[in-house]
Amino acid sequence: MRHQYATLWIWLFLLPLALDYKAPDANVGHFIQFVFVIPVIAAGLALALIAPRFHNGSRLRSVITFSVLLCVLGSIVAQFVQDNDTGNYLRVLLPFVLFLLGYLVACRPWSEYRISQFEKALFVSNVICLLFTFAYGLATSGDLEDARFRIISVTLLGLQAVLLHEFVVARRFSFFTIAVFAVSVIVELLSVTRSLMIGTVFLFLFAMALSAPSIQLVWRTAARSVMTGAVLAGVVGIVAVTFPTVTEHWTQRIFASEETVTGKDPTTITRLAEMRDQYDQVTASPETLLFGEGYGHYYRYSPVYLPDLAGQISEKDFYAINEWPAGHNFWVYQLFAGGLLFGIAMPLATLAALAICFFSYRYWRVVVPDAPMLPVLGRAIMLFAALPATSIGGNPLGPRFSGLIFGVALGLMIATHARLQRALPARMKRPPTPPHLHPAAMPELPGRIQPGMGRADLATTLGISHAASTAPGSGQFGALVSRPTSTQNANRPNIVR
């Protein structure tokens, strides 16, 4: 079947929400925001219909698919039980629906050419979101103090994660990638957001662990990452000299607890107060603990933490807080909204999938380092690792665009792992061999590729043509490396899909 518009659908699926924005007034701007969602959903449904299908089962893929479907569809039960405001419910649910749609579209055995298009669209969309959010935040704010809350891209850590894969894992540097990474760090510093800085450090350490085949070689990898550290240090120095007020704000944020009456950081206390109220509400009865309070349910600050905010907020303003958007803590909010039955399965399953793919990638990188699509798995792992990194300071599935991006990242990670797991050697626990016996030869593994076998056999097992697997730049970063598009046999199903 010809899918001549597949490329257009991929870009319509990932690009429009990069221009999504947070309206300065909560009562205006909703129509334009939903206009961005319509082509995304339409293109996603079209891609889901034309996408190739897996013919082999995968336990990990089945578990992830079930957990994501349970999270989204199970919210309907909580909505009927709690009868939350329908508009609030749909607004909070929309990013989770986009997360599900992105996962279902990307978790397919797409050809290597189509995967490169997905990666290129992902990278370009993240860069556009970074620049657009920064410009829009400055334009709608009076000064830098007010703008710092609006200039942060919702996928800033996801963009940094992919670039850190280039720098630390693939060890490829270009002027463009270094410039984009430097701009992201500048935005991070101007926002004076501690959680973002912690997330960047976490992703840097995660990339080091991903690239090191063993714990003993982590320090060697750290030595090779001097270039990335130099870029970070240089950008920090430039911002400190150019914007002295930013340095003062960072100093105030770091030592904020010392300036309060209680000696406690106010931001940390408000996050704890929010989580405590959500926990108290969901554990108030067996019904809410099982089904949750539902998406869009109102929550406040727990009165337990009011004394810790003395001098920071009045008692009247404290009790006036009544919020319904997705909470700042992703993990607690999932329990609050979905309960034990519908809320916690998806976060736990995705974390387990990230760990499984992480260790599988490290093993395969040593055994078959030139395997086709192994770099795709590495980039997908890094992009999805930005989800727990983002959850340090906020809910990664609160904004619409980040929900879509992380869903696509999860789908690419699971699909690529399933294909490589079938083709590459499995990790085996070798029993201790007695000193007087020779080690037994590795048994034949039907359907798997043994270490040292040629790329042609591996590409055939993965369903990739030999020409595609040996094309220039096929093992490189498809999102950043441009290569000519082949038009030969363009109408064959296994190429155009």
UniProtKB/TrEMBL annotation:
<feature type="transmembrane region" description="Helical">
    <location>
        <begin position="151"/>
        <end position="168"/>
    </location>
</feature>
<keyword id="KW-1133">Transmembrane helix</keyword>
<feature type="transmembrane region" description="Helical">
    <location>
        <begin position="226"/>
        <end position="246"/>
    </location>
</feature>
<feature type="transmembrane region" description="Helical">
    <location>
        <begin position="88"/>
        <end position="106"/>
    </location>
</feature>
<feature type="transmembrane region" description="Helical">
    <location>
        <begin position="175"/>
        <end position="192"/>
    </location>
</feature>
<keyword id="KW-0812">Transmembrane</keyword>
<feature type="region of interest" description="Disordered">
    <location>
        <begin position="475"/>
        <end position="497"/>
    </location>
</feature>
<feature type="transmembrane region" description="Helical">
    <location>
        <begin position="331"/>
        <end position="364"/>
    </location>
</feature>
<feature type="transmembrane region" description="Helical">
    <location>
        <begin position="401"/>
        <end position="420"/>
    </location>
</feature>
<keyword id="KW-0472">Membrane</keyword>
<feature type="compositionally biased region" description="Polar residues">
    <location>
        <begin position="483"/>
        <end position="497"/>
    </location>
</feature>
<feature type="transmembrane region" description="Helical">
    <location>
        <begin position="63"/>
        <end position="82"/>
    </location>
</feature>
<feature type="transmembrane region" description="Helical">
    <location>
        <begin position="118"/>
        <end position="139"/>
    </location>
</feature>
<feature type="transmembrane region" description="Helical">
    <location>
        <begin position="376"/>
        <end position="395"/>
    </location>
</feature>
<feature type="transmembrane region" description="Helical">
    <location>
        <begin position="198"/>
        <end position="219"/>
    </location>
</feature>
<protein>
    <recommendedName>
        <fullName>O-antigen ligase family protein</fullName>
    </recommendedName>
</protein>
<feature type="transmembrane region" description="Helical">
    <location>
        <begin position="30"/>
        <end position="51"/>
    </location>
</feature>
